[in-house]
Amino acid sequence: MDNRKTDDRAPTPGRLLPASEMLRFSTAGSVDDGKSTLIGRLLHDSKGIFEDQLVALERASRRRGTAGIDLALLTDGLRAEREQGITIDVAYRYFATPRRKFIIADTPGHLQYTRNMVTGASTADLSIVLVDARQGMLEQTRRHIVIAALLRVPHLVAAINKMDLVGYDEIVFRAIASEVSAFAGKLGLGEVTCIPISAVHGANVVEPSSEMPWYAGPPLLEHLESVELESAHDLRHVRFPVQWVIRAAAAADRDERSYAGRVEGGILRPGDPVVALPSGIATTIRAIETYDGPIAEAFPPLSVAVRLADDVDLGRGMMLVAPDDAPRARRELDALACWLDETPFAPGRRYWLAHTTRHVRAVAIEVVHRLNINTLERDPTAGSLGPNDVGRVRLALAEPIFGDPYRINRSTGSAILIDEATNATAGAILLLEDGEVWP
């Protein structure tokens, strides 16, 4: 159950693009399940490709000896991707229909690039997981469903692809759909939509397929256009991490300061009382400014500069919150981790923890358990997390952070661990409530 609620003081209509008009979605699945082809088909059939792009695509397809147009090349933009025929980086694409605007994150399917799938899904409203109808669910398919559930992506679509290669067989589709739904249900994913498609032929992608009259649901694009979305942002709890202190340029106003950052929760208005963390000093918002001038209110994910009524010692890594509604100060973290580094997470290892705009030193205390991706069983004897593992961990911090459970706020409830020696991103962690169990 998602506890994110709308603030009683709802934002003024029209100040942000409503969620119903913009959908961010990611694609995932195992290697060769057809992710890039699907995205290319969506763009091509919805007239989302410019003429010069189409000409370049035809030329690239001829160089590869492909009969017709290889739509996968539209998103496989890196030279290494085209040579290997796989997606490595996260390819972001934008397109629109009369009913909705879309931002697509085409994420890699290869196990080695699971970290890129985490990146692409972390801001998604919906995740499309492709399944090859000939193969059924594979370990990497399960891994991507686990990550979508872990990141609390609100909607999941299982696109059963390559139906043309199994004779558009309804029995094959029903069997895979049943397996996907059962697995997702164990992870707490309540809404799973299964759609049979053939990306290479465009069947059930933009237009309904005459080859599958037994399927009564909408084609994929129609589902993407009509799915109902709630705000992914926490509009109830005021959270404003300070990123930068801005001093007035004029000499006469040199003592005048404003505090720049992105609103990560709640609604800010001039006159609102706030408390600065970690000092606990109370003050009032005097003005909220943007590049285009002052505004009457700010809410996620706007980046603004806040001016306060009092002189408060406030700098990068500190946070403004509403009185009597501060996040808990945490010196020890109980968290879920998706491990991305070749060097395992193990007790005693030291990291930098980056949380909103704050960086603190952290040390690994223990691995509570490692999750078996296939069976969803917990292994309390694991002792460490290797690359692409998911598990529950405990960390101790040199200084407190002010964080919410991830289920309430996706920004203040998440952090990354950075290897001290290499400065590489080692893992993504999601904060838990006391006693919270997942999955």
Q: What do these coordinates show?
A:
The protein is globular and about 70 Å long. It has three domains: 19-226, P-loop containing nucleotide triphosphate hydrolases (Rossmann fold, 3-Layer(aba) Sandwich), CATH 3.40.50; 239-321, Translation factors (Elongation Factor Tu (Ef-tu), domain 3), CATH 2.40.30.10; 328-431, Beta Barrel (Elongation Factor Tu (Ef-tu), domain 3). The chain contains seven helices and 21 strands. The model is unreliable at 1-20 and 78-88 (pLDDT under 50). The protein has helices at residues 35-45, 51-63, 79-84, 114-121, 139-150, 170-186, 220-226, and strands spanning 22-29, 91-96, 101-106, 126-132, 155-161, 192-196, 239-241, 244-247, 257-262, 273-277, 281-290, 293-294, 303-308, 319-321, 328-339, 350-355, 358-371, 378-379, 390-403, 414-419, 425-431. Strands 7, 8, 9, 10, 11, 12, 13 and 14 form an eight-stranded antiparallel sheet that branches. The protein has a six-stranded mixed sheet with strand order 2-3-1-4-5-6, with helices on both faces. 17% of the residues lie in helices and 32% in strands. It is of the alpha+beta class and 439 residues long.
